[in-house]
Amino acid sequence: PPLDSSICIHEAVFDAVFNDLQKCQVNAGPKQISGYTVVPNPGISWLAVQRKTGMVEPFQEIAIYDLFGKLWINTITANGKINIAALPPGMYQLRVIEMESYQIIPFVKQ
Q: What is the spatial distance between Cα 109 and Cα 45, in angstroms, rounded to a whole number?
């Protein structure tokens, strides 16, 4: 049987609202960026977070998490150097946060 025209209208309205909601959700949170690297990797006592040439935004925050999500270091640095000597050996994720953007960089502490 032919579809009721009111069903088609309701589906069109639903699709429009759903698409608008998806756009809002995508734009609501912080965006992931790229352009940072960590050296040396693996590291022993210090890491240096380096930016690609041309990036001028100051660091807002550097956070280091283990693979279980435990926060080990949370600091603000202007020169990008982080003391990791107190970290136990293992794998970590370094998160660089600037304004409303972030990048996650995996690294190994020896």
A: 8
